């Protein structure tokens, strides 16, 4: 079974397109939709509950937070906590696959055919292509400059959350790495991309299917400050070294980041 795992926090303004696409797979036996709401304070949770009721959706389930989320000190922890809930629930199986999807993104699920399912079933992790869409409707392809297959000495270009499909077996085998709390600002997508570097090439697939990613104020990385970009690079370096048992990386960028990491943690 393919589980569509949707991460939502106050995305009521962006949910319409995703729910419209999910409508095409409601109650289909090959799909299960798991909605993880991180304590939304807008009407997005009501929108999803109304959707379930309207379409009598018996394959859509919501994981709700017990407390409203007015803003996390460490936002990256929201997705990790949601995934942990799923892995500790009856909806987790090592024989299933899990497609992660931010609630402001979407995919044309109705176009997915038998070949798609056959392909992902044989892999531990897959990455779809990504098409960015602005509020004005302008589209552009998000290119991956460095795949997980290209280097064992440098972390890959990160394929965004909604492009990642993993096997339950992959998640289970890497649980301690995925949920390690020592690496601030290393988001779920970054962790999964880097952990994929530990796999054999035959366990990985870059797919031709697209997900559509709406660019808006909350997810526009081009507006990230230079200081935060540097911090994220340092934390990504630390995590990548950690999952590789801190071995020396023969790469100039990793060497520079190693020096910066030592200075950063001492400071």
From TrEMBL:
UniProt superkingdom: Bacteria
Gene Ontology molecular function terms on file: transferase activity
Bilayer-spanning residue ranges: none
Keyword field: Transferase
Domain Glycosyltransferase 2-like positions: 4-131
Name of this protein: Family 2 glycosyltransferase
Organism: Moellerella wisconsensis ATCC 35017
Species lineage: Bacteria, Pseudomonadati, Pseudomonadota, Gammaproteobacteria, Enterobacterales
């Amino acid at each position: 079974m393919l589980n569509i795992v949707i991460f939502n926090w106050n995305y009521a303004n962006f949910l319409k397109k995703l729910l419209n696409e999910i409508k095409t797979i409601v109650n289909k036996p090959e799909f299960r939709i798991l909605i993880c709401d991180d304590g939304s304070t807008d009407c997005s949770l009501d929108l999803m509950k109304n959707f379930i009721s309207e379409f009598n959706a018996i394959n859509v389930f919501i994981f709700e937070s017990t407390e409203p989320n007015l803003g996390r000190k460490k936002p990256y922890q929201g997705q990790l906590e949601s995934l942990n809930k799923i892995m500790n629930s009856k909806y987790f199986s090592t024989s299933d696959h899990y497609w992660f999807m931010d609630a402001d993104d979407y995919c044309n699920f109705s176009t997915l055919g038998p070949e798609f399912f056959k392909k992902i079933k044989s892999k531990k992790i897959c990455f779809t292509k990504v098409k960015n869409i602005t509020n004005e409707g302008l589209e552009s392809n998000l290119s991956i400059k460095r795949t997980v297959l290209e280097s064992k000495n440098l972390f890959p270009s990160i394929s965004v959350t909604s492009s990642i499909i993993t096997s339950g077996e992959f998640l289970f085998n890497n649980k301690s790495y995925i949920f390690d709390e020592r690496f601030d600002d290393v988001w779920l997508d970054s962790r999964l991309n880097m952990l994929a570097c530990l796999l054999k090439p035959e366990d990985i697939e870059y797919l031709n299917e697209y997900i559509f990613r709406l660019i808006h104020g909350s997810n526009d990385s081009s507006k990230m400050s230079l200081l935060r970009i540097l911090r994220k690079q340092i934390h990504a370096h630390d995590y990548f070294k950690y999952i590789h048992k801190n071995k020396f990386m023969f790469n100039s960028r990793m060497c520079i980041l190693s020096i910066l990491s030592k200075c950063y943690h001492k400071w």
